[in-house]
Write a structure and sequence with these properties.
flat, single chain, 27% helix, 5 helices, Actin, Chain A, domain 4, alpha+beta
Amino acid sequence: MNAIRFAAAALLLGAALLFACTGKKTDLPADTAPASQSAAPVVDFVQFEIYRYDQDFGECPQDSARCARVSIGYPLAQTGPQQVMSQINTTLLRTVCSLIPTFEEENGGKVSVGTNIPRTAMKFGNAFEVLQKQAPEETLGWVVEIEGQVLFQNERVASIGFDCYSFTGGAHPNSFTQLLNFDLKTGKPLTWQDLLLDEEALKTLAESRFKQARKLPENADLTREGFFWDGAFVLPENFAFTEQGLLFHYNPYEVAAYALGPTRFTIPYAELEGLVRLEAVR
C-alpha cells in the first residue's frame, strides 16, 4: 500500500513539474535559440517570438549618473525546419550583439562580435565601470535600448526591424534602424544583390522618391542640399519588405549629417516591376 501511495505521489509531482516547466516561457540568456523538443511536431512554416533581455550595471536605481542600462527586445524563430531556424537565429543574435557598444577597441582589446547577448551586455557594463573609475566626475549614465519586431512575413520571406537608441556620453545620443530580410526556405539573409534586376533604373526611381520624402523639387541637387557628400546617389544599406511595398531607410550619418535625421520612404511593388525580383511577395 505504501508503495502504491509513493508511486501515485511521484506521478502527481512529475505532472506538476511538467506543467511548471511548460506553462511559462522564459527569455533566452543563451547564445542560440532553443532546439525544438524531440516530441514536438515538425512545423515547416517559420514563426517568430519576441524575447527580452534587461540588465542594469552600476548603481541603478539609486544614482542615475552611475547607472548603465541595457533593454532589448528581439525576435527569434521558434518553429520551422531546424537548420533554417538555426541560421536565422544566429544572424539575429549576432546582429543584436553588434548593436551593443562595447568599446573593446578603445580599451585596447580586440573587437569581436558574438551571439551571446548577456556576455556582450556585460562588456558594455564593464566599459561603463572603466569610465567611472577613470573619470568619476562624469555625471551622465549610459543606456542602450533595442526593440526588434517582425515587419513583414509570408511563407517565403520575413523582414525584421530593430530600432536602436544609445547614449554613452558625447554631444547627442545615437538613434538608428537596422533592417534584415530572410529567405524562409533556406534561412539565408537577403541583400540587394539577391533582388536587383535593373540597379540603375531602381536608383533613378529611388532618388526621385528620396527627394519627395525630403520635400525637395525634382531638379534639386542632393549634394548641395546636404546629402550624398561624394555626389553619387546610392541605395540604402537598410531595406525591408512590407505590405505596402519595399521600404527604403537611410540612417543618420549614412548619407547626411546627424542633424538631418533619417530618410524613409516606401515604393509600391507595382512600380518595382522589372527592377527587383518580386516573386517572394506575390
